[in-house]
Model the fold of this input.
Amino acid sequence: MDSEKQLVLFISPAFFGYEISIKDAIEENGFEVDYFDERTSNKSFLKAMFRANKALLTGLINKYYKQILRKIKNKKYDFFLLIKGEVVPEWFVVKFKMLNPGARLVYYTYDSVKNNNSNSSAILKYFNQCYSFDFDDVKKNSALKLKHLFYTREFIPDLVPDSKREYSISFVGTLHSNRYITIKSLFQNFEKTFTFYFMPAKWWFLLQKMSKRAHIKIKRSEVSFDKLSRHQVADIFKSSKSVLDIQRFGQTGLTMRTFEVLAAGAILITTNPYIKSTNLYDADKIIVLENTDLSSGIAEIKYKIDKADFAAKALDENFGQYFINNWVKEFFA
Done:
């Protein structure tokens, strides 16, 4: 370890590789980082159990965090950055503070309180600063400060003459709720479209088909159980004139897709009206569909696609604060 660098303990669940990008961004800002996955396993069944009934896995969790403690107990940390916090035991946070009395503890969640289990809220009292991406949660809990998500380097277009954007409208995301029916209805009004529906496991797909009316007609060939790489997603967005983003029910925070689409230079079509209250909002680049019948926005989408200038250009200086290398700085200020 470089003795000149401050040391950060970083614990986060694995989420599409963004945890590694955050670690890299912290290191590029001059810190030394020890990263551990918050979960003992990322198998789909165990991930569901961690959220639904963490108590059933207490023994497994405690064993895992005792192993982490043995690895870090002889180090002196300046910061502890925890993301989400659904699994980390309260005793571990208390022990960390005892071993590192001068450390600053920072908490962040990219999910709403409704979608996190109770552990996430129970441990907030131990942290010096707590952030959430969710507008409503920040309003309800004075301990939370609003902090939007970010974009990574892959989504920044090369400053070269504009490559052809072959898709009028695209969607890349996990298949849940009524997304399939909604997207089918909207996309049939456009000539060249791209859709990628992800499901975490085959058993989950079959369960959804049996239990959800909205999923009965979905064909196996329309769903992927393998994630696209971030480079693949970025290439799709850079090849799209517009990208649809539908936030999860009950969430008010701006999704990661929000920042990735805007960074890639495509028009963002979002169902989240909260974006209008931010410094991101630009009526030429963002279409907000507040009506549950998304087809009502077809004319607006086509009009803005036709008049948009898709030539690659430098990102706005204010938008640069959401680039991941800049985004992490607030945690360690």
